[in-house]
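Re: [ENG-882] Designed sequences occasionally contain unexpected residues at chain ends

Forwarding the minimal case from QA. Structure tokens:
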């Protein structure tokens, strides 16, 4: 295995040139296609020549905030571009939309919606969507449209050729998503994920900032006409017998939302909605039944928005275990037949295989007892659903004797920390004493989702494995601690409840996790049997610790972003805190190549090939992530085999 020493060097000597012929394919949607398999039929880059990849081009948007530009947190370039005709289209953390020539990376156009991100905690945009108007004449303005959501809650339609707003969509090319939701303070309500295009409909949920207060904007999911922007339907995620919203508000407030990317099945006319948990995250005593659809996957009729079925992955979620991962649709082989299926990965490291027609589990799911004894005013579910297959890909408990540290002193420090907290396994409730949250609120599997190679019947998924700390703080104590309001990080108010919350990672004074490594893994899972075929530590501590200390720390680091598989048997993934894009053998999990990046790639890559006589490109965004301490950046980097 060879390593790119810089993002501008060619890997190795005597590199092989690409060969003509073979499949040509694009990347038309955030997840690769509407089914979100993140799998490409391309074969030019394979296990024999992947070691010869070089940087083909790099684009710098200039859009990043290192924490000094007015935002509460550094920006994060979490985007996966899509291919529209022969152009890459993507959004920056500031919601600018940019189109690049897919061969050269040269900028064709850029559109700026002029979002003011001052004071915002979340500064990112994960993707855009494209739609072709079958009624439009060839070459007409907005015959092909780019849809993007913004941090200030607008849904915008742009002409794919020029980047100009489509004037016939909404008002001057935009729909204001704040309509009907009531008060939405700056930074509390917006869109961070790519809208879903289903036929002539554009469907979107919204991001709602965690742990502010009970009375937050509602999590309504809406569908709009792709031509006019007219609202076609709205799904308000509340029980059928819920009381109506208050006067002047169209949708119930404080409900669960759908902030991550949706998926769709055009043949079944179903939209699959992964949901968050009801506001706020760590205390549910005031929810009054509003979390019927929280932390669930919900199948909606694409024509009406009515619920067809729902499956809840966490009952009465008080751990911020919202369903962050995009649902992935695939063909499940069973008893000689093919069942249309959907797999939902979760922050707990659980993977639920469901019949996507009915929501029925394809492997048994058991309701098992979980720890009880919540704080005063809370009510807890006595059981939680656990899939029997695949087995969990995250440890379920952290005991004092499991404590880890780079030195005996740090291990002892972590052991004392764990012993002082409630730690009775997964779903230990938040407490006044303090609770070990393991998995932590990042997961597990987050918005990076997973990839399925249907030819090999392998599901590839990555997982972070870092413990967290949750402590509820009674309101009188909270008010004494923070008479002028809490700090920007680590403490959150949960207004309208009896408790504020402290949440943090469980680290020693060395800056390393208290749970044993690896702190990140990559898994290959047999789709048919649900068995784990292989697992590998993912990433190194190279960019987490100074030289030479990182040489002596174990592999496997926190990660955020997802994998992509190809028909040639490769899995590409960035995601790690070290600054690399990697290629693995999908069948064995062996690492075959890594390319050095200017900062971490907390994003999911994509791949495409424009012509039979052209090169296959693998593109990844390297923009870092403040939560993981990875420096912010603005690079979009394309790798390919050398030109002849």
């Amino acid at each position: 295995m060879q390593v790119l020493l810089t993002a501008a060097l060619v890997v190795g000597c005597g590199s092989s040139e690409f060969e003509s012929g073979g499949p040509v394919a694009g990347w038309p949607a955030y997840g690769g296609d509407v089914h979100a398999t993140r799998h490409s039929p391309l074969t030019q880059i394979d296990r024999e020549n992947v070691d010869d990849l070089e940087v083909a081009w790099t684009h710098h948007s200039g859009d990043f905030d290192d924490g000094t530009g007015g935002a509460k947190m550094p920006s994060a370039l979490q985007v996966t571009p899509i291919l529209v005709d022969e152009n890459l289209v993507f959004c920056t953390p500031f919601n600018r939309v940019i189109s690049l020539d897919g061969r050269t990376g040269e900028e064709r156009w850029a559109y700026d919606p002029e979002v003011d991100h001052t004071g915002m905690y979340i500064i990112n945009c994960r993707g855009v969507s494209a739609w072709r108007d079958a009624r439009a004449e060839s070459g007409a303005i907005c015959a092909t449209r780019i849809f993007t959501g913004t941090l200030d809650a607008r849904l915008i339609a742009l002409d794919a050729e020029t980047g100009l707003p489509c004037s016939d969509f909404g008002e001057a090319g935009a729909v204001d998503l704040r309509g009907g939701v009531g008060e939405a303070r700056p930074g509390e309500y917006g869109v961070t994920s790519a809208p879903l295009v289903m036929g002539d409909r554009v469907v979107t949920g919204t991001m709602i900032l965690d742990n502010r207060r009970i009375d937050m904007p509602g999590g309504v999911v809406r569908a709009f006409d792709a031509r006019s922007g007219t609202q076609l339907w709205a799904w308000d995620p509340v029980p059928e017998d819920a009381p109506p919203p208050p006067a002047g508000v169209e949708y119930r407030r404080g409900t669960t939302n759908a902030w991550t990317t949706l998926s769709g099945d055009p043949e079944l006319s179903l939209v699959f909605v992964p949901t968050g948990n009801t506001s706020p995250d760590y205390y549910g005593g005031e929810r009054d039944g509003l979390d019927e659809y929280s932390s669930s996957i919900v199948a909606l009729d694409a024509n009406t928005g009515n619920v067809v079925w729902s499956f809840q992955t966490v009952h009465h979620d008080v751990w911020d275990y919202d369903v962050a991962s995009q649902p992935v649709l695939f063909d499940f082989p069973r008893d000689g037949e093919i069942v249309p299926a959907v797999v939902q990965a979760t922050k707990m490291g659980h993977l639920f295989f469901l019949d996507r027609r009915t929501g029925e589990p394809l492997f048994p799911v058991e309701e098992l007892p979980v720890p009880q004894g919540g704080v005063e005013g809370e009510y807890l579910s006595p059981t939680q659903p656990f899939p029997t297959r695949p087995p969990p890909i995250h440890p379920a408990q952290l005991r004092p004797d499991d404590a880890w540290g780079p030195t005996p002193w740090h291990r002892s420090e972590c052991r004392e920390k764990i012993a002082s907290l409630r730690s009775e396994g997964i779903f230990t409730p938040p407490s006044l004493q303090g609770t070990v949250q393991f998995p932590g609120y990042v997961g597990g599997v987050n918005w990076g989702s997973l990839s399925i190679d249907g030819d090999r019947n392998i599901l590839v998924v990555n997982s972070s494995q870092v413990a967290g700390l949750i402590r509820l703080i009674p309101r009188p104590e909270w008010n004494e601690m923070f008479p002028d309001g809490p700090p920007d990080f680590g403490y959150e108010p949960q207004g309208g409840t009896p408790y504020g919350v402290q949440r943090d990672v469980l680290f020693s004074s060395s800056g390393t996790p208290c749970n044993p490594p690896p702190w990140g893994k990559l898994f290959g899972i047999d789709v048919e049997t649900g068995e784990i075929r292989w697992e590998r530590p993912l990433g190194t501590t190279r960019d987490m610790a100074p030289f030479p200390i990182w040489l002596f720390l174990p592999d496997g680091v926190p990660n955020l972003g997802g994998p992509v598989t190809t028909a040639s048997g490769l899995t590409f993934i960035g995601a790690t805190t070290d600054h690399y894009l990697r290629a693995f053998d999908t069948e064995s999990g062996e690492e075959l190549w890594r390319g050095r990046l200017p900062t971490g790639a907390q994003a999911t890559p994509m791949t495409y090939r424009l012509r039979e006589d052209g090169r296959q490109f693998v593109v990844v965004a390297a923009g870092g992530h403040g939560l993981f301490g990875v420096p912010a950046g603005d690079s979009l980097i394309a790798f390919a085999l050398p030109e002849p």
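QA comment: On inspection the terminal residues look reasonable. The CA atoms of residues 117 and 223 lie 26 Å apart. Proposing we downgrade this to a documentation issue.
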